[in-house]
Structure formats: structure tokens, C-alpha cells
Design a protein that fits this description.
about 375 residues, alpha+beta, Homing Intron 3 (I-Ppo) Encoded Endonuclease, Chain A, Arc Repressor Mutant, subunit A, 3 domains, 4-stranded antiparallel β-sheet, 7 helices, about 15% helix, NUMOD4
């Protein structure tokens, strides 16, 4: 790796103009330089062994922890460097630029969250003292707005917005999100968060930026965080291998697109909430959650749960399959074979737990359950 920043340099040789000072409360243990590098000093270390004893540790430059986040406006990386110091076997975590400023420019309350350290070049990896500035969250936000590295909530709130009801029908237009909040009694900032993609609903209503005249198609609303179309964890556990994505086994297929010949029926006792297919897949329909938040949950394929058990030889083998389903806030793991048999093979008293569904081929999770390979036994 090419060394660009001082924190990447772990050599004990000083950098140009580098100066070292003891870290307060860690004197004789650590020193920090005006470049933001931390040195662990040579000291006597006790051996953790029955015979006891000690040895002298060597000086070394400690490695900084690098955290990376994404600026939502510029889509650029935001870096922050941290350092963990130890005293009497207790770990203390510090922000490296805060610690550098504290030692070389001026002491302040390191635990006080209103006193922040910013970077003149906006690069959190450049921890040289000449690049550090003590500031506040308000000053950071103001500078970010001016330099277009962030969008002011005031500018967002000034944009027009459309309100939709829980079925996606247009019910109102507002010249601004601020005005929408004032007239509805809702919080304009919360409306702005939904519009910016941090959710779909607020107070049981959908909100979209701009003036819209068409109703929303609820089936086209997707999850904010898209997930993969394959349950890779279960595929690995079952040792399922596939090369053609169009032939993904139903048990690990999370795609909303129906498979060839796949049919769907309403799950008994969960009408309007879940559908079950003849392939043994379970689809949670889009719905508004209960409670104060009233969030919109887009439809999705439920991940199948496999009941793994030990056989007579002590080997873990796959048993039956289940899906998590909820109604009126009560969640339950429901047997998929029982549902498929009831919907696609033959109706029976599904509430009777004495009736069992078995697999003809003896391979519960991988069997072709849409081809009627069940036997219903009393």
C-alpha cells in the first residue's frame, strides 16, 4: 500500500518537523505527535504465566482505526480516525484528531459533544495539527451548506409536496413541506425525511416531492434497502449450488418475480397479508404497520426457515420448512408443507395438529413440493 497519510506510516523514524508530546493521563505509556501519530513507549510488561516475571516492550507506532461513511449529498467518503489506549488493563477510545488538537493546540473537554474538530481540507485522514480546527456542529453544517456538501433542511422544506392516503390516492398538494406541516399539524422535517427516501410514510400518509396528479401504484414501491434475490446463507447451509440464476431453487429464491408455472393463493388465516405458492414460497403483501409510526412495508418473499436436526449418527440434517407470519402484531412460525398441501393438494382441518404432512421422497427442504409429493397422515 502506498503511504499517503501520516496515519499509514508506522515507522519510528520521525516525519519532517514531527514533534512528540506525552498524552495526558497516559504519561510514560503513550506519546502523540503533531502529525496525529501515536507511539507506544517502551515499558516493563508483566508476564501472565505461573512463573511470573517481566520483559521490556519495544517502542512502536500504533495503528489507527479508520471508519468510513458516505456523504449523502456528494456521495463521497467521509473518513474518521480513532485510537484505543490502555491503562491498567482498561481500554479508552479517542478520536485521533481531537486528541491531537487537545495536546498541541488547546485543552477542552474531550467528552463534550458540542466541541468538535473539523478539517480545513475536509479530509479526515489528514490529522496534522495545521489542518485541525475547533468548531461546533452549527458551524460545520453552515459551512457544508455553503460549499454544497450538504443540503439545508430549509431549502428542502421550501419544495412543493403531494400527500397520498394509505391506498396511494392523491388527497392534497402543498406549495412547500413547511406549509404541509403547518396545515396538517405534522412535522415538516419528518415529511422531508420521507421525501428524501428515509421511509415511505409519515402519520399513515405517503409523501412525494413535487405536484403529482396520478395515484401511487403501491405494488411498485420497493424497500429502501434492496436485498439480494437469493438466500445465500440458507443455500450455503443446504449446500445448494447453481450456475444459472434463472434456475434458482424455490427454497432460496427471494425474487418477487414468479417462477415458471408458479401459482399463488391466500394463506388461510392470513388473508390480505400473505400468499403461498405451489412452489412453497411465501409472499408478504405490502401493508401499513400498526402503531404510531404506521410505516409502509413493501411486499417481499419471506425467507424460509429450515428445522435442522441431528440424526442418529449425530449429523445435522435438514427437517421441515417454516415461514414467519404475523397477524395483529402476533408473529408465528407456520409450517409451509401444511399450507401447500391444504391449498394445492387437498383441504383438511389445518388446525388439527394430529394431522401430519410427510414427504414421499424423504427430502423435506429440497423436495419438489409443487408436484404433490405429500402424504397426509392421521
Amino acid at each position: 500500500m502506498k503511504t499517503i497519510y501520516s496515519y499509514q506510516n508506522h515507522s519510528l523514524i520521525n516525519l519532517p518537523g514531527e514533534k512528540w508530546k506525552p498524552i495526558p493521563e497516559f504519561e510514560s505509556l503513550y506519546e502523540i505527535s503533531n502529525y496525529g501519530r501515536v507511539k507506544s513507549l517502551s515499558r516493563e510488561m508483566m508476564l501472565n504465566s505461573p512463573g511470573g516475571g517481566s520483559y521490556m516492550s519495544k517502542e512502536k507506532i500504533r495503528r489507527a482505526k479508520v471508519d468510513v461513511k458516505i456523504n449523502k449529498t456528494t456521495k463521497q467518503n467521509i473518513y474518521s480516525l480513532g485510537m484505543t489506549l490502555y491503562r491498567d488493563a482498561i481500554a479508552y477510545h479517542y478520536s485521533l484528531p481531537r486528541l491531537t488538537y487537545y495536546v498541541f493546540k488547546g485543552k477542552f473537554n474531550l467528552d463534550h459533544s458540542t466541541e468538535l474538530i473539523s478539517f480545513k481540507d475536509h479530509d479526515g485522514r489528514n490529522t496534522h495539527i495545521s489542518n485541525l480546527v475547533k468548531t461546533t456542529i452549527s458551524q460545520i453544517k453552515l459551512a457544508s451548506y455553503k460549499e454544497k456538501r450538504a443540503i439545508s433542511h430549509l431549502s428542502v422544506l421550501s419544495k412543493p409536496v403531494t400527500q397520498f392516503d394509505g391506498q396511494g390516492k392523491v388527497i392534497a398538494h402543498f406549495p412547500s413541506m413547511y406549509e404541509a406541516g403547518r396545515l396538517t399539524g405534522f412535522n415538516g422535517r419528518n415529511i422531508a425525511e420521507v421525501v428524501s427516501g428515509q421511509g415511505h410514510m409519515f402519520k399513515g400518509y405517503f409523501w412525494r416531492a413535487g405536484i403529482h396528479h396520478r395515484n401511487l401504484s403501491l405494488t411498485k414501491i420497493r424497500r429502501n434497502t434492496e436485498r439480494g434475490e437469493i438466500n445465500t446463507a440458507l443455500a450455503k447451509r443446504l449446500k445448494i449450488r447453481y450456475t444459472d440464476k434463472s434456475k434458482i431453487p424455490a427454497i432460496v429464491n427471494l425474487s418477487l418475480a414468479s417462477m415458471a408455472g408458479e401459482k399463488w393463493k391466500a394463506a388461510p388465516g392470513y388473508q390480505g397479508l400473505y400468499l403461498v405458492s405451489n412452489y412453497g414460497r411465501v409472499k408478504a403483501l405490502g401493508k401499513i404497520t400498526q402503531g404510531l409510526q404506521q410505516k409502509w412495508m413493501p411486499e417481499q418473499i419471506q425467507k424460509i426457515i429450515v428445522d435442522f436436526r441431528k440424526d442418529r449418527k449425530g449429523k445435522w440434517v435438514a427437517g421441515s420448512t417454516f415461514a414467519s407470519m404475523a397477524v395483529e402484531g402476533r408473529k408465528k412460525q407456520v409450517s409451509i408443507p401444511r399450507l401447500v398441501y391444504f391449498l394445492f393438494v387437498k383441504r383438511y382441518d389445518i388446525a388439527d395438529t394430529n394431522l401430519r404432512v410427510y414427504y414421499k421422497d424423504g427430502n423435506p427442504p429440497l423436495t419438489s413440493i409443487w408436484r404433490g409429493v405429500f402424504l397426509l397422515l392421521v
